[in-house]
Specification:
CATH class of the largest domain in chain A: Alpha Beta
Shape of chain A: elongated
Helix content of chain A: 40-55%
Radius of gyration of chain A: 26 Å
Strand order of the largest sheet of chain A: 7-3-10-9-8
Structural class of chain A: alpha+beta
Number of strands of chain A: 10
Distance between the termini of chain A: 53 Å
Number of helices of chain A: 12
Strand content of chain A: 15-25%
Oligomer: homodimer
Largest interface: A-B, 30 and 31 residues
DNA sequence: TATTAGCACTCCTGATGGTTGAGTGCCAAG
DNA sequence: CTTGGCACTCAACCATCAGGAGTGCTAATA
């Protein structure tokens, strides 16, 4: 049973009003606000139907109604018209992400921050995947007796290092030799390939120098795995003054969940497939602490490839028509910024 | 007018009770709890005196009394007996910080986390000063045309890197030469010295290669300056369910302040002088958002030198006699852990 | 002189109850 | 199908009241 035109209009109007005011919407209010020449009684009938079909719910008998996550979903899919980014927001985005910033980390930070600032919600950026990076350079430095610092550099300028304990002291010459071997054999190759090769080559060897190489390999592996976990989040506290979550119990849960990141990362990585903005509304995320929230995310593309995803976390009741283009725009700009650097 | 023995005992007892229960303490309660054979009326007289002298205050006419920050200060200075670390806490501390962990960053993280966990408050660690580190190694890598990645390594294994844009493309040989020059001239010298020398030497030169060196110098400067700002904080939201700050307004302020770090860092750096645990109780910090909180901090010592400070932020009403040894112990262990690595 | 019992007073807290207003569901008339 | 009417529900607000904890003060006591 499809919704008729009038019902859709009323649903749209109701959700818009609720987003604007945050209070349940009653039949009188809605009848007036919707602009249709229609009596509250009629509206009540329609609302009752919409409630039956799961789009609305009333917090208690004599309150108005508020949208369910199903209602919001229908709203964003079928009723919503996104508005273009406001000039001021666009300005600010350009200002923060449009310039050349040499450091990747800084760019990511700027993006997270700007998301949080412009939306007054929590902003996040999943760090770029490194899977397709290639190895640019390796260095082994003897820091002290039996301690070697391994440094990995990728072609994009990622630098990662690790302290390795060795059984015997190794001379600078030996380490140099190892580094040279490493660079000559593997320099310019994709990290993943390097690791696979090393895994095979080092399977059964037990030489001391091979231990260094093995550790180096582990470092490489960590570089690939580490960013499985990494994610920048800013403005979690903005979630504090969402009246809808005021009951501190749920709030704590949410903040903890956001802090943990693990499940969140999992959720987001699933949304890296397409190249479009994606929404998780309320329970849709299948992740309990988020069930009162919505997540708006968009993948960002660097040199033609989706490297990560960014977005915001906020209340279900958020101005989607503005948030969506904002997240989208930020994703584009971040992609561009990262392509330059 | 010194406080007589009985007054001190009562003050102590009152504060202990208030720390335990969180509610204002009345004369009846106190008379019973203090173990003295004394009537509530007498206690009232004493309490009135203590209030006059600024140690106590009553939230309203017919509530009991609670300590002021002056009261707490007297308490910790003159009345408090710290208890030894509980075996379980000690165990946990050892478990988390007693092992060898190669990565400095990880150790610092572990310390922050364990502080927050054991105290159920916000834990922080100021990152170690690098001022006295020496330069171990410098590398310049051409990443692309006109982009050079500079990598600095200190003797402790800190690695820092920076992307430098150049006007002209530089060959690998040229960069190598620059790095060699750098390493030969400055390797093994303290960072600060390196920077000073470079500042002098490069004052008026304008060669392309000198630009690289200058950028490298800036990187070095950043390494020294950066950690002026850096501080790890964990468990901020433990502060959420302090009943004393429930009014979300103050709470937001506090969380923001903690997030900003700037003033906090400033406050803490002042407390790196001595080698003892230090407390800032309430307004003592001279930092408005903290005026309802206490900060317990302790400097940590690596190789005989104070390199940083760590501690916790919590309500004024905290079990100081346990928190103090805990912070102290953590500082010792962190110092030890960092000496090894 | 220090301590204590007694007493009047203050003020928070929680319960009670009435009123108001928004909103609903249903029914019968248009 | 729409609408006005109507009875009903319920949260929110407010005033009131009793109870209780606690105080300060005073006068008696040891």
């Amino acid at each position: 049973m499809a919704m008729d035109e009038r019902a859709r209009h009323l649903l749209k109007s109701l959700i818009e009003q609720h987003i604007a005011n945050g209070v349940p919407v009653g039949s009188r209010q809605l009848a007036k606000g919707a602009g249709l020449n229609i009596s509250p009684a009629t509206v009540r009938n329609v609302m009752a139907d919409l409630e039956d079909e799961g789009y609305l719910i009333s917090p208690h008998t004599s309150a108005g109604r508020i949208p369910t996550h199903v209602g919001y979903r229908f709203f964003v899919d079928a009723l919503l018209r996104v508005v273009p980014l406001s000039p001021e927001s666009h300005q600010l985005l350009i200002h923060r992400l449009g310039h050349y910033i040499p450091d990747t980390e800084q760019v990511l930070h700027a993006a997270t921050e700007v998301l949080s600032e412009l939306t007054h919600m929590a902003g996040f950026v999943r760090v770029p995947r490194r899977a397709n990076r290639t190895l640019r350079h390796v260095d082994f430095l003897a820091l002290r007796e039996k301690e070697v610092l391994a440094i990995f550099v990728t072609d994009k300028g990622d630098v990662e290092n690790r302290l390795i304990r060795t059984e015997h002291a190794l001379s600078a010459a030996e380490l140099n030799q190892a580094a040279n071997f490493f660079n000559e054999s593997y320099g310019g190759r994709p990290l993943q390939e390097v690791i696979q090769h090393l895994q095979r080559d080092l399977q059964q060897s037990r030489h001391e120098m091979d231990r260094i190489l093995r550790s180096a390999m582990e470092l490489g592996e960590e570089m690939l795995e580490e960013d499985q976990q990494r994610m920048l989040i800013e403005g979690e506290f903005q979630l504090l003054d969402l009246p809808e979550l005021a009951g501190s119990e749920r709030l704590r849960e949410l903040l903890n969940a956001v802090r943990q990141k693990r499940d969140l990362v999992h959720l987001l990585d699933g949304s890296m497939r397409g190249s479009e903005v994606r929404l998780f509304i309320g329970e849709e995320s299948g992740f309990a602490p988020l069930s009162d929230c919505s997540v708006v995310s968009a993948p960002y593309v660097v040199d033609g490839e989706v490297l990560g995803v960014l977005g915001v976390i906020g209340p279900m009741r958020m101005p989607y028509q503005q948030i969506i283009p904002l997240v989208d725009g930020t994703a584009h700009l971040l992609g561009r910024a990262l392509s330059q650097s």
